[in-house]
Amino acid sequence: MIKNSPLEWPEPIVRVQSLSKICIDSIPKRFIKPLSDRASIITSSDYDANVPIIDLGDLNGDPDTIASTLGQISEACHEWGFFQVVNHGVNHDLMDMARETWRKFFHLPMEVKEQYANSPNTYEGYGSRLGIKKGAILDWSDYYYLHYLPLSLKDYNKWPHVPPSCREVIDEYGRELMKLCRKLMKVLSINLGLEEENLQKAFGGEDIGACLRVNFYPKCPKPDLTLGLSSHSDPGGMTLLLPDEQVAGLQVRKNNNWITVKPAPHAFIVNIGDQIQVLSNAIYKSVEHRVIVNSSKERVSLAFFYNPKSDIPIEPAKELVKPDRPALYTAMTFDEYRLFIRMKGPCGKSHMESLKSPT
Predict the structure, then answer these.
(1) Is the bond into 163 cis (omega within 30 degrees of 0)?
(2) Who's near 290: CB < 8 A, 6+ residues apart?
(3) Which domains does the chain have, with CATH numbers?
(4) CA dihedral 105, 110, 111, 116 (to 10 degrees)
(5) In 3-state terms, what secondary structure has residue 68?
(6) Residue 88 burial (CB count, 10 A)
(7) C-alpha distances in angstroms, 230 versus 20, 37, 226, 299, 338?
(8) Are strands 299-307 and 238-242 parallel, antiparallel or unpaired?
(9) How far apart are CA 18 and CA 156, in angstroms?
């Protein structure tokens, strides 16, 4: 539960999946984005670019191979803020099962899904909007949000009980992704020139937060007018995205262009969140991204967020603050930051800019 967050949404909730079934050649006005925010065809030379694909199996190789892999990750963090990982240790069958289990959930009858309807007070459950600003232009997506850690927030009653294997699959999937996140946190710490446990300790050691948001993007008759998810950077620490390998949709902002990510088979897409941008004193930056929708295909993706303990003040690591690079951000807990974002909804990088220390 987030303090000072309202108990109810400001307007009646309309499920986008339901709209998708009745909207034939138009979409409601409240989903139409301003011209400047709409998805457009990329014509730049970056059109064929793709976020780097990195083989994590090479971290078990000889010293030269390890050094090369660390370098690839460092470059990806500096150049993109995003990278894909393969040979990451998570069972491919489990990845497929997790995605398809959730796809089945979103195809359940609406009255079953509505039993899990969420509120802005916790966001946990079945939802269709982010942010509580009345009259906001909405995104063309539904989602399911749940807490994995801390255990005090992990409430199986708020997890779907259908399909029958859903809770078991979520639990196993979460355990495997926690291992992968811890491995990546060590890599990021080493690449920043810190002790390998530095970032993990700053997050709270073993006492950290993790949550899952499953995104469902229904077919849209006018995909050029709207977005599945508006431009934003992730407010937490690090995100592991399991994309829909059959339908591209994630776009990453690079050099003022929007690059559509081409998912590698059974890869996770990793991105830096705002909290690591703060801890690294902006050596690593969280990067704007958004989601486009499709006129002929639905899309399902699973975003696993690895976050600091909610009440620990997050500020630049003291080792990364120097006379020629003073601390760029004032301390703020993740709870405080998350509330700020939930009031506003996705707004590009404006949240991060607001954290900067006065100069």
Answers:
(1) yes
(2) 39, 227, 228, 229, 230, 231, 232, 250, 251, 253, 258
(3) 26-32+46-355 (2.60.120.330)
(4) 50
(5) helix
(6) 23
(7) 18, 8, 9, 16, 17
(8) antiparallel
(9) 27
pTM equals 0.93
d(CA 285, CA 77): 8
Helices 63-79 + 166-191 axis angle, to 10: 100
Report which DSSP code applies to 351.
H
How buried is 84 (Cβ within 10 angstroms: 0-12 exposed, 13-18 middle, 19+ buried)? buried
d(CA 20, CA 83): 32
Helix (H), strand (E) at residue 92:
helix 92-106
- Among residues 112, 230, 88, the alpha carbon closest in space to that of 166 is found at 112
- What string of pLDDT tens digits covers the 359 residues of the chain? 445 566 788 888 999 999 999 998 999 999 999 998 888 654 444 456 799 999 999 999 999 999 999 999 999 999 999 999 999 999 999 999 999 999 999 999 999 999 999 988 888 999 998 877 888 899 999 999 999 999 999 999 999 999 989 999 999 999 999 999 999 999 999 999 999 999 999 999 999 999 999 999 999 999 999 999 999 999 999 999 999 999 999 999 998 889 999 999 999 999 999 999 999 999 999 999 999 999 999 999 999 999 999 999 999 999 999 999 999 999 999 988 887 766 655 555 555 566 565 55
Q: How far apart are CA 228 and CA 162, in angstroms?
A: 25
Measured in whole angstroms, the distance separating CA 196 from the mean position of its chain's CA atoms is 24
What span, in angstroms and rounded, lies between the C-alpha atoms of 271 and 359? 28
For residue 207, the 8-state DSSP code is: -
Identify the helix (H) or strand (E) that includes residue 337. Answer: helix 334-344
